[in-house]
Design brief:
Elements: E1 4-6, E2 14-16, E3 18-20, E4 32-35, E5 38-41, H1 45-50, E6 54-56, H2 57-62, H3 67-74, E7 79-82, E8 85-87, H4 95-106, E9 111-113, H5 114-120, E10 132-137, E11 143-145, E12 148-153, E13 161-163, E14 166-168, H6 171-182, H7 186-197, H8 203-212, H9 219-229, H10 235-245, E15 254-255, E16 258-261, E17 266-267, E18 272-274, E19 279-283, H11 286-289, H12 294-307, E20 311-315, H13 317-322, H14 324-338, E21 346-349
Parallel strand pairs: 10-12, 19-20
Antiparallel strand pairs: 1-2, 3-4, 4-5, 6-8, 7-8, 9-10, 11-12, 13-14, 15-18, 16-17, 16-21, 18-19
Length: 357
């Protein structure tokens, strides 16, 4: 029999492990394979392949590898990357190997959640995030070690995604916990809005998680869901809503309403709209538009407002973030000025659903 493994240090194509005779010493009782000069039972090959060369000490013992053999290998080419978790190779761990090592240390039933799980569902910051956060039931102890933490929950995830050797929280649970991990920050807003906007999770499922889960650190999650309910399609739009809500003089700002001219022409959708005076507010993000054809479309749309007598105020996300007081004062002045003028002949309708794309 020839066992096939993936080189854990490079992530290269599968390469065959060498086979040998029944090992002498070390307590092996099965046909052995050789890995980095260390003979191992052939039964370990599938596990080492699935776990990219990582294995728990108790797994080695269960497959007949003696404590002396483990100690000998650790003094040479193997190393402990977490308590009880062995890397059977030299060199730094890849991000994928780090995550597998964390899962092996957390335990077979532990479920990855929070920001790292959100990244697994393709949402959230692209940079690596620590600590890795795992959930376990109340029968196990909470613990932490070297960038990994395991917390207990009375509400275990009953439908995690199974990606052996990982268990990953389902999208709603992962994203709700990620928002709590980010706490009351802009990151929580951006995470939730992005996930709902892209159709990765529904607002109703997130709302259920917000109500069923812990209230501690849930303010950011609830604020983001409020922005979703008001049809904000991005974090800068949510920030605009939050700024205008502080005003004592402005009416309620509409996010992304449908506009129609008196002659029936459909007009571009503004990021924000004050309906009593017909004032449009746009948040122009270079990150989203400047490197694509959408930027030209944005500039053309801004000109359309003037053609139909609509006053439009532009902002950048950075200015809203850095000087919200100035932004609010500017909006209030424009609104006060327009109160003395005829409202443009435009029909506005509040958005009733999300744009999923």
């Amino acid at each position: 029999m020839q066992a096939i493994d993936v080189d854990p240090s490079t992530g290269s194509d599968p390469v065959p492990l060498s086979t040998g005779a029944i090992a002498r010493g070390g307590g092996f009782t099965a046909w052995a394979v050789t890995l980095h000069g260390m003979q191992l039972p052939d039964s370990l090959a599938p596990q080492l392949k699935a776990q990219l060369g990582l294995v728990r000490r108790d797994e080695l013992l269960a497959h007949g590898v003696s404590r002396d053999a483990i100690r000998w290998a650790l003094s040479r080419t193997w190393r402990l990357v977490l308590p009880g978790v062995v890397a059977t190779f030299t060199g730094a761990l890849s991000p994928r190997q780090e995550l597998i090592a964390a899962a092996l240390w957390a335990g077979e039933d532990a479920v990855l959640t929070g920001i790292c799980a959100a990244r697994w569902h393709q949402v959230g910051p692209l940079n690596r995030w620590r600590p890795y956060w795992f959930l376990t039931d109340v029968q196990h102890a909470a613990r932490s070690s070297r960038g990994v933490r395991v917390t207990r929950t009375r509400r275990p995830d009953v439908r995690p995604w199974q990606r052996p050797p990982l268990l990953v929280a389902h999208p709603a649970r992962a994203l709700a916990d990620a928002a709590r991990e980010l706490r009351y920050t802009a990151g929580a807003d951006a995470l939730v809005i992005e996930a709902v906007q892209r159709g990765i999770v529904s607002a109703d499922d997130l709302r259920h998680e917000a109500e069923a889960g812990p209230r501690r650190w849930s303010a950011g999650l609830r604020r983001a869901l409020d922005a979703v309910d008001r049809h904000a399609w991005s974090f800068p739009e949510a920030a605009l809503l939050d700024i205008c809500d502080r005003s004592r003089t402005l009416p309620r700002l509409w996010a992304n309403p449908l506009l129609q001219a008196a002659d029936g022409t459909a007009l571009p959708t503004p990021d924000g709209w004050l309906d009593d005076v017909g004032l449009a507010i746009q948040v122009h993000s270079v990150m989203y538009h400047a490197l694509s054809d959408e930027w030209d479309g944005t500039l053309v749309n801004d000109g359309v407002y003037a053609e139909y007598g609509i006053c439009m105020i532009p902002f950048t996300p950075a200015r809203l973030r850095d000087d919200p007081v100035w932004a609010l004062e500017r909006i209030e002045r424009a609104h006060a000025t327009l109160l003395g003028r005829p409202r443009p002949s435009v029909r506005a309708t509040e958005r009733s659903g999300l744009l999923i794309g």
